[in-house]
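Case study 2.
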Amino acid sequence: MSSKSIRISSELFEHAQRQGEILSRSASQQINHWVRLGAMVEQSDLSLGELLVLLRGEMAGGQRPEGVLWAAKRAQQARDIAAIESGQASNESMSWFSGGRARRAKAIDSPF
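Prediction:
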């Protein structure tokens, strides 16, 4: 795959770096991921309201079970990011690929 240089804000690059580290992606891979998602959303022909309903996992009569699971996943990811940014956990402890083991978050200086 060939690549092209583009200018992006240092803020966006740093955000992509932080998110990418957690998901075992480079900043470039993270930005490419976001671009693909954005392109798919724009091509979906959904209104903003319809898209929000889908992202929240809501349907008439309440939430779908997968919506609840995705909400829990996003909440856990937010907690993991906060733990790394505050120094309570290391990037390595959050990676699925760390040492070939299943992902296990481990707080620094914690007996757990």
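Confidence is low (pLDDT under 50) at residues 97-105.
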